[in-house]
């Protein structure tokens, strides 16, 4: 069989000592970078990019890819332990991961994250190795009309993400979309809300927003409330670090759903792991038997987004390698690493360079395995981090946040943006406004706006011809059904609650 | 004749004055700013240039990415640096298109930037997507007249936007402009048949042409391109008046000492002559630049005028 | 009926003010366009108005619920902001070590009492950590110390 020969070729390439070494180096650096708030895969890969000039193209890509998916493993660590997203795609993990840590279950959350990430990773690799030709053709058929419909579906599916009232959640989505309009409008070239500043022409940085809104506001609220957070060192034993059987039982379906959603979003250039994480979290909350557990330390809310963003990280290689189209700035660097060596990824890559393609895929298996082996023993170490007194910990976090924000563009302005969002985040806490819907609006709003406006140009202003496109139509119908269903479910829940209250009164 | 003699005398005087500084340059590390994120063709050429100049100068030469605002963040940073040659920048025709559309630039390209020399040049090339049937440029014009086409850009005010407006104007067709978020995004929409035409430099489109994902339609200009002789030139089908090429140039901050500019320009040409640089250029389907700093400056300034005029004629002005 | 929740009311009012601000600025400065040919002002105006409406609903809801009182911190957010601001202002002209020092020392003030030994020791340790991670390990092009004079 062909596929077996390919796997053999891939393993042969991936398991050479040099490639194995760079794979380990990549995932190790990736994990570390992922843990540090603010520093993401893009920063890490930019730093190590010049190194790839002196490596074989396959080795170079194995290392860069290792950093890339390694950050997704590390990114959740800071989210769970400190409520500060290490990478933007793991911001959603804060919602249930941090409550778990507060309940003394940080070890279980971290362990399940590693399991979920591994599961998502291998799911993504399977999709990558079996469906690449099919999926790349599918991704090409997606125009702006389809993207618009799909992103709208994503917004509706994830809109129930917060615990707060529906009105507050919607208000924060609006605020997020409004904040995302800052910068040059790609359709008209108009600079919106920039007030003449060049620094915001590309928009407010999403990592600065996530760090300020989640991280800095968390620090402001936690200072001097340290006693309640201090862990009993004796409580850190193997048992408290291990996930329970119940955790596993609850997790396997969310992991499967999360990986599927992640795989889909990963293949579409321009969407990626953050959207995937949000949508899978929203979906889990919708299908859950007890949605009220979410936001209070539900394991499903940790594993689903983590499997989703790891699956998306893997399937993002499909358009990159088979079309030569980078879905993100990070993927552009991967293509750059190949172009240095005169290889232009495209439909012929798999046939022209089978050792590169299959070697890379097999290195993903090896890398994900290494990550689990690397991460599980680290959990004990990370959990001990919580026993560091908070008055020593928070200045350190603040320093990492500042340097992380600065190092993205070497811009002092970005650091001030973090400060601004920190104040906004604390104000939102005072008024009981949830932060996650704001981030959701910030991520999805511009995609929806830009794709809609572009689709309208391509349809020459004819709205109905856009809906007549089969994928667009179907997705919009699903969106409408989901909307109706969630309203109906909301009304039913309210009625049931009223009935229960009435029952309680009559029993009195 | 007299003025020319005068000016060369003045030049000689200034050169002698600045020679001392130019001779010792560089005696500390040099930074070349790449105002784009890594991995693109400008980044690759900039890094190769840094590598070659390091060999020549015997001092560390570091390529540093300062991306943002369509290269204007890095360019603004250059304009604020000391004009001592230790901070340089590589940039594309964005240097000439940005002033035509961006109102908020904190510097003036004419006074705050010194053009040093052209690193690489290539013509612009139009590529067609899956929805286009034509195989020759003449057929394409007919098809575009029968079915108004969508021209995909890499963003408002980018060189793809300007050259497409120029082609539409000079060929007398009507077409719609659609803005995408990047050149890659524009070309993937060509492959899917969502948009029809995209124009960019050869380095950006040739990988996809060679993979058979998009069709090479025409080279903009009066002559065929020596590296791609099979692609017809726009003038062959009677579309004249398009004489503009893409380039990557080396720039310094404003008011640089002319002797220093001459020295860096000369070292640039030494670097370009090396075998390894020639290979990088060939890989990107570009030719090495060979003009003097003055010639390059004239070209940049005339392009600024060209795009400003076109922006007014075609209404490419951001509010 | 309980006393209206003043804080909820203020939150709603602030959102309304913000929404009106966004919408008004966009309506004055950017083209609105039509539903099928949207201009750059359409989305900010619509969402600004929506935000204002949601703000009004939240403010109105304040009269239907009892007040809850958590501590509102004023000093801590100011100190943390000052700490971040100090980093932002110092990193370019002075370099990383002074920026980290200022950031950490100011941040420790948020504890409510100034313990110079603890603060400066922590700042020194973190400066070394930052140097090790970002300059030695990751090789970021950030200057350690600059003397602008």
Give descriptors for this structure.
heterotrimer, A: 508 residues, mainly alpha, two-stranded antiparallel ribbon, 2 strands, 1% strand, B: 319 residues, alpha/beta, D-Maltodextrin-Binding Protein, domain 2, 2 domains, 10-stranded mixed beta sheet, 12 helices, 10 strands, 46% helix
How does this structure look, described?
Chain A has helices at residues 2-14, 17-35, 41-48, 57-82, 93-102, 106-140, 144-158, 166-180, 206-222, 238-241, 245-267, 273-287, 300-315, 317-323, 329-339, 349-352, 354-385, 390-409, 412-430, 436-458, 463-467, 470-507, and strands spanning 183-184, 191-192. In chain A, 74% of the residues lie in helices and 1% in strands. The termini of chain A are far apart. In chain A, helix 4 (57-82) packs across helix 5. By secondary structure, chain A is mainly α. Chain A has a domain at 2-143 and 207-410. The model of chain A has no long low-confidence stretch (mean pLDDT 85). In chain B, strands 1, 2, 3, 4, 5, 6, 7, 8, 9 and 10 form a 10-stranded mixed beta sheet that branches. Chain B starts with a helix and ends in a 5-residue tail after the last helix. With 319 residues, chain B is α/β, with parallel strands linked by helices. Chain B is globular and about 65 Å long. In chain B, 54% of the residues are buried. Chain B folds into 2 domains: 2-122 and 246-314, 3-Layer(aba) Sandwich (D-Maltodextrin-Binding Protein, domain 2), CATH 3.40.190; 123-237, D-Maltodextrin-Binding Protein, domain 2 (3-Layer(aba) Sandwich), CATH 3.40.190.10. The model of chain B is unreliable at 13-17 (pLDDT under 50). The longest helix of chain B is centred in the N-terminal third of the chain and has 23 residues, at 2-24. The longest helix of chain C is centred in the N-terminal third of the chain and has 24 residues, at 6-29. The mean pLDDT of chain C is 87. Chain C folds into 2 domains: 6-64; 75-137, no CATH class. Chain C is mainly alpha-helical. The radius of gyration of chain C is 24 Å and the shape is flat. Chain C is built from 5 helices and no strands. The termini of chain C are far apart. Classes of the chains: A mainly alpha (508), B alpha/beta (319), C mainly alpha (149). Chains in contact: A-B, A-C, B-C.
